[in-house]
Structures
1.
Amino acid sequence: MDREILFAQALERVKKTAKEQGNCISKEQVEEAFSLLSLGDEQFRMVYDYLHKHKIGIGEPVNLDDYLNDEEADYLETYLRQLQELPEFSEGEKEAVTLSAMAGDPDAQKCLIQIFLPQAAEIAKLYAGQGVFLEDLIGEGNVALTMAVTMLGALEHASEAQGMIGKMIMDAMEELIAQNIEEAGKDRKFADKVNQVADKAKELSEELRRKVTVEELADETGMSKKTILDAMRISGNKIDTIQIK
């Protein structure tokens, strides 16, 4: 198998293992993951730098607060201060609430949401800096938390609840980031379309020394009328070298 493919697969295994361990992995685990590739010290240093940039600690967790910008840090501080007003539960009480939530008690499910709200905020810090506002990540995580507490009946033991809830929160945040990336790609595609039409319209307009019609632009450039009309609509009809009927 191609060495680059093996490297990419090993890196994905490392990231997956770290995620399951609270975004932390040991050097021994990293070295084992890349054992087939016989990496040198410099190559391992590059791997560790990459992991650190992705908030994965080597041997011990990284301080996620160090990755937040000032606006995110201020928002998080205010949000966590508000959560401090919620009631506190002992470990025994948490287990009792979890068991009741697993049995379908709606009041217990509401309490469990309150218990896990700080964890959702903590998880959100893992995904900060990936194109989605921290506030939106927390909001999406809280929605997933609200759903998760109603689905605990499928578990056998209360000790499994934290893992299930945490996974659903993380999955929701990852899905939000993926959607944002997809939307950003669409926006770039739309922007490229508008710019292409605007540039061609400007060239033809300068040649004719007047605004051009959609039909003239289509005939001259080979672009379809639909492409031109879509670009005009996306731009809010602000391509000023095209005549609007």
2.
Amino acid sequence: MAIWAIADLHLSHDQEKPMDIFGPLWENHAAKIAANWRRVVGEEDLVIVAGDISWAMQLSGALADLDWLAALPGRKLLLRGNHDYWWSTITKVRAALPPGMAALQNDHYVYEGWAICGSRGWICPGEEGFDSEHDEKIYRRELVRLELSLESARRAGHERIIAALHYPPFNRQASPSGFTELLERYGVSYCVYGHIHDEGREKLFQGRRGGVNYIFVAADGVGFTPVPVVPAT
């Protein structure tokens, strides 16, 4: 049983939202995801889906995308992204999820001795366009949410922790941030993140730093294939 991660599925089964307007790489991207997913993920595996799951604006409009995702192998753990406008209250989201699917918000999820924590995150100070008034407020709020999630795992006695964020936990220069400080303080082993689609994604930091292994998992940056986080045991 293994743990995988992927972000930025950008599904739109209930509406017309062709992704190939963002480039030929995105042509028939849902079919690519499904084929690659079935090739690598086992039925007992867990896949962390780190945000930007559906283009739907309302929860009812996201149901077709959630059903499509549920039909793929493995259990799925969902995290909200900046484009998941359909994600209303966590209570309503969880009530609507198909079997074998869970949602993460201010808490943690346990799989095979691993506690998975996370939050949406936000752009970090030092990133181009960071607004010290608007962005700082959201950034601080997301730090609180991440710490709530991590603290819930600590209180439950978990020592092996994976963190999932939609946004990178640092700026393009990989400068330390409030997110990286939390990940290190709580002894997180792996942190997966997505969100970035421009050409600069090749320069995003990946690898081990401060005891944390950082893994970029945005779908178009990883060949529309779930990325292994913890190999099969």
3.
Amino acid sequence: MEIVDLLTPESVIPHLRATSKKQALQELAKRAAEITGVHERAIFDVLLERERLGTTGVGNGIAIPHGKLPNLERLHGLFARLDTPINFDAIDDQPVDLIFLLLAPESAGADHLKALARVSRLLRDKSECEKLRGTDGAEALYALLTQSEARAA
């Protein structure tokens, strides 16, 4: 499972404007609905339910909200860079400015976990995150996200 299998240039949001975790998840659900064809409210509800289990703010300004939906054919990812970091109840209590949303079919099983692990590995790399924070434009962010794994291969 590679990042290029999850993202398209259209699923990269270079300037997400949100003032709260809830608003960020709503905006991401709206964009994910456009990409997946699944209703925005269904996506938002799955993301909110997952957050109730525990924050997906993993630290160092990064959040990886995720969930499973019955109407999906395949895994989908969205990457967003927030204009202003927000409180995401992250495990290190630091505000979040990089979000990688992952949506999987209910039947995904191990593929969902592999995708989560791949995204986590990418965003654990501090130098990659600094490049993402310093890059502007959806195409440039997409290239950075997908080229980093080509360099690591």
4.
Amino acid sequence: MKWESARKNVGRPRAGTIQWLGLHYAVLIVLSGFCLAPVIIMLQTSFKVETQIFSDPPVWFFVPTIQNYIEVLQADRFGRYLTNSLIVGLVSTLLTLGFGGMAAYAMVRFRFMGKGVVSLTTLLLRMIPPAVLAVPVFVIWSDWGLLNQRNGLILVYVAMNLPFTIWILYGFIAQIPVTLEEAAVIDGCNAFQVYLRVVLPLIRPGLAAAAIFTFRIAWNEFILALVLTNRFTRTLPVATSLFLTDHGIQWGKIMAMGTLIALPPLIFTFVAAKQIITGLTAGAVKG
């Protein structure tokens, strides 16, 4: 009888377990709503007219309009600002991944003077806030002729994101068995060929993760882009400040611009995340 009773209870969750799961999901829902609240308000405001935005009490149910998006897309030089953001974000991401991957591989596999100091101070450089770098970089870029150019902004973003990229890829490269690289050397590969043909395919998840953070930082950065660009080379985050006029703050257009700015990083993150999943499920390397 005891055996039959125990067999009937197999697979049935206990009351305490059900309560714990209910509390767990309730907390997750509340936290998700708290995190999504700014995004929901931004989307909602972007579809309102000015009178609805400043109404008191707030209007929660209204007829949406796309007038803010039309005015933003038809604004002067919007296409140029979008092109600047895409070029700066994508090129700086590619350069950062290229240099960061090779630097991380050198730190993991090679011995050189000052390796410990370089490894410890690499991530500390990322702790410097961009606002501190704005004035010194402005002075240096003025002397070097890189001010108000996309190349100058790309170099700043590469330097700013390189320490974090090296730190991420360092852990991925350190987990690769040395025997794989030794086998490639026996087959006639040099150090650079080993890195291209053996290491890079195995650290695809790390490259995707680093690309996500690097692109998002380069795409959303405001302070350095404001200081180092002009009306021809400014990016979308800086262009958003143009809606702060003498006649008031155009919140509808700002929220519409914010929504448009958030879309490319979202798409880029989705594509890169697929590479992370593909790399993790393609197979495991055993040492």
